[in-house]
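User: Structure please.
Assistant: Input sequence and predicted structure:
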Amino acid sequence: MKKVKQDSENYLAKMRGVSKSPPVVSPSEIFWSWIGAFIGIGAVSYINYNLLNDTDSIMVIGSFGASAVLIYGAIKSPLAQPRNLIGGHIISAIIGVACYKLFSDYMWFASAVAVATAIGTMHATKTLHPPGGATALIAVVGSSEVHNLGFLYVFIPVGAGAIIMLVVALLANNIPNTRRYPEFWI
């Protein structure tokens, strides 16, 4: 009984964290993160609302907002690097579409399998990008507009949008002398 109590105390102690809050971010870092996110999301949104507006295609998906946080605001993170951005989204999109096609009669199951498999596959391929989990989930729970795309979803909006955001990240993140992106490609 004493061991069980000790184990539960150790388990709960893990939840206290191991360090203090992160350091303050400089105004310059905030500014350049804002600029990158504005231009990156602006470019993808412009295409969506002005060039694809009269088509069945879409360009904006919610997971791009989370990608923007990483590739413009946390540029040194391994999760924000080009391999992770592109690979994580593409792999997750393929898995999400496949899960929807295979298990759409059981949406709860399709959702769980899509996200869990996307995470496992991103880990295995060294492309872990947290927004990829949302990309897989969107393929399953998205609108009929998303479902009608089928595997085209992998290319437009996911692949094309991620590439546009990457180009903006390469350009904007390297303007100031204090920033450098990427940390690695492969």
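Residues 28-172 form one domain.
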